[in-house]
């Protein structure tokens, strides 16, 4: 099993290399942005610095906490900070390669508007007044997107689910080109039905 602390250090170092800024500098930028909510800060980092969802989320999650042990500038005796990013657990092992695809679909879903993300053990539940979608790995090569919307028409890409479940339909994607207008229309319908 991968060492979560080592994975976090690698992720933070990669973020620093991508942005050319230290974690301390990134946190200073967040402070100066005036944003207060976790999701707003994450979106701001994604838009301003081009970070992916998971990287931006990690920067925000670490704000106000001691630098991860082992990172340049961290106190030698700093407590070990375990990653609080639920995606680290959801996309571990043979599903780790799906994380960029997850981040790509989440970035598109975020264009629909504000919503809450409730991490579960194996997926993220996306909520407004109620859950409108679920995103998580289905297999080592596919992400499943559950859609909580009763008005979705039959379609070869959609699997309609039995009544009484958390979603009425689901679809699976295995590449970014499947995050297309059709998928976004289904997500938009589910998003709007949960207003």
From TrEMBL:
Top-rank taxon, per record: Bacteria
Family annotation (Pfam families): DUF4287, DUF5655
InterPro entries per UniProt: DUF4287, DUF5655
Ranges where the DUF5655 domain occurs: 88-193
Name of protein: DUF5655 domain-containing protein
């Amino acid at each position: 099993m991968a060492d979560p602390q080592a994975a976090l250090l690698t992720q933070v170092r990669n973020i620093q290399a991508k942005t050319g800024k230290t974690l301390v500098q990134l946190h200073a930028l967040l402070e100066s942005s005036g944003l207060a909510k976790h999701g707003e800060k994450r979106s701001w980092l994604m838009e301003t610095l081009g970070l992916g969802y998971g990287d931006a989320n990690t920067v925000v999650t670490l704000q106000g906490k001691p630098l991860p042990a082992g990172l340049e500038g961290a106190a030698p005796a700093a407590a070990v900070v375990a990653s609080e990013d639920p995606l680290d657990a959801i996309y571990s092992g043979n599903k780790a390669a799906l994380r960029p695809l997850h981040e790509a679909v989440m970035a598109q879903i975020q264009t629909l508007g504000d919503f809450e993300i409730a991490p579960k053990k194996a997926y993220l539940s996306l909520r407004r007044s109620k859950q409108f979608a679920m995103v998580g790995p289905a297999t080592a090569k596919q992400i499943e997107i559950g859609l909580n919307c009763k008005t979705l028409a039959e379609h070869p890409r959609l699997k309609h689910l039995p009544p009484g479940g958390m979603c009425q339909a689901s679809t699976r994607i295995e590449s970014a080109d499947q995050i297309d207008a059709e998928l976004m229309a289904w997500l938009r319908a589910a998003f709007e039905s949960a207003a």
